Amino acid sequence: MPVSLVNLLVLMLGTTYFREGSSRAISLRQDFKCGKKPLEQKAGSFYNHLSRIVGGNQVQQGSHPWQVSLKRDSGHFCGGTLVSTQWVITAAHCIQSRNLLSSLTITAGEHDLRLTEEGEQTLPVKRIISHPKFDPRKPMNYDIALLKVDGSFKYGPKVWPACLPSPDEKFDPGYICSTCGWGRLRENGILPQVLHEVELPILNQDECSRALSTLKRPVQGDTLICAGFPDGGKDACQGDSGGPLVCMSEHGSWTLVGVTSWGMGCARGWMYNLRKKYDRRGSPGVFTNLIKLLPWIQQYMATDVKMKSSTASCSIEDGRLPDNEGILHLPERPNRFYLDNQLCVWTLLVPEGRHILLNFSHFDLEPDIFCDYDSLSVISKDDRLVGKFCGMDPPLPLLIGSNSIRLKFVSDNKEYGTGFSMTYQAVAPAMLPNSGCGSLAILFEEGIIQSMHYPEAYSNLADCQWIIHAPENYVVKLTYENFKLEENKDCTYDSVTVYENISMEREIGKKR
Q1: Could you say which of 63, 69, 84, 93 is catalytic?
Q2: What is the pLDDT of residues 65-100, one digit of tens each?
Q3: Is 112 a catalytic residue?
Q4: Cα 235 to the chain's mean position, in Å?
Q5: Residue 487: helix, strand or coil by DSSP?
Q6: Contact at 8 Å (CB) between 350 and 326?
Q7: Residue 143 falls in the annotated catalytic set
Q8: What angle do CA 335, 338, 339 make, to 5 degrees?
């Protein structure tokens, strides 16, 4: 029976004793990379672990794996936040001392300042970049700096990066966020040796401005964000400067929203400031708003990545893969993670009349339902998208009914993974009689599709898929020349289903 269809369709043969789920071109994964706490076994609401720096509790080792300690001649003086293997974000006012670079080191995985604990890593700093608009005479505005270490931190259970926010990401007033550090436990009190944290609500901008305007020297700025409780009691304190204000995103990842900058006193209330003498007035915690400064941060980090990517990240960039078979890894070994802001393109051309088989042994890219962030795309020689892949599950082997394809890998500036490893091979068109079952067959020209072992009986538990592309303004016509499947009333058991799109959401027909 003939069937006329649109210019792209998916055929799926399913047989049973026990039906198995089908693999799709887009695979999903729920565990994002950055902003996770590797030692945290079960993610819970942030309301379940409230504690505070001023008069509060210390945290468990590894509970803030992005927190780092800035040290001058081995002595801690400020905090910072790890956002990649080589970059740390801190406050600009922390690094204003002359000749600081020669004595500055960063320790990741730090917990107890008195001890050298398992998992700690210390690296020297080779570059300090303060925001050009930071003015020490007005130290609350543009109070941010980037530090690049000499070497790379190795990620593990106690060393892990926080996520950078997206430009359009919002954390509304009242949102509970976390800040931590080795700052004083009370105003003018002792400095603790063990990391402490406090949970604070974000304030709306009007309330923040009102509170800061009542001080003896009113504070104004373009990059400020406030957090705290009007009656005080919880706050960051002296010694916490440069540390993170992190908020849990809707995806469950901890995102760096602010950098600890300043505050009048520690944990003082500001609700009745106008009734108090100037020297007793308090303020919310003042943080540098990272979202407002994201373009400046990305400018330096992206430039650095681009310089490295052409030599250290892509096996061949905008180039042809050698030979008719081989292996492609991303990133190149021994690197464990691919870099941010990458664009890698490979072209594979095999002899005319041959098809291309791709087989993935490892796959780990940032997951997204539409693969809009990090992804690997397979593109035909006439620039049609064959498939776009992301997530943690390796795609099915791809049998491409063409002698030329392009592979395009892209990554954004936020999440990351361990990349992919695949083999490519030129094969004869009739080499794989079970194509569509063991592999996902993608066909461009007219031809014949057969079930496995045809004309012998097909196997039980089969799950076979074929994707058929036609040129634009053409349709696909299917003609069944022979059709013998297990008899069943409503196609519950063995059947062939035709879909209009790759995600198999729109069913055109089902035949048994």
Answers
A1: 93
A2: 999 999 998 899 999 999 988 999 999 989 988 789
A3: no
A4: 30
A5: coil
A6: no
A7: yes
A8: 115
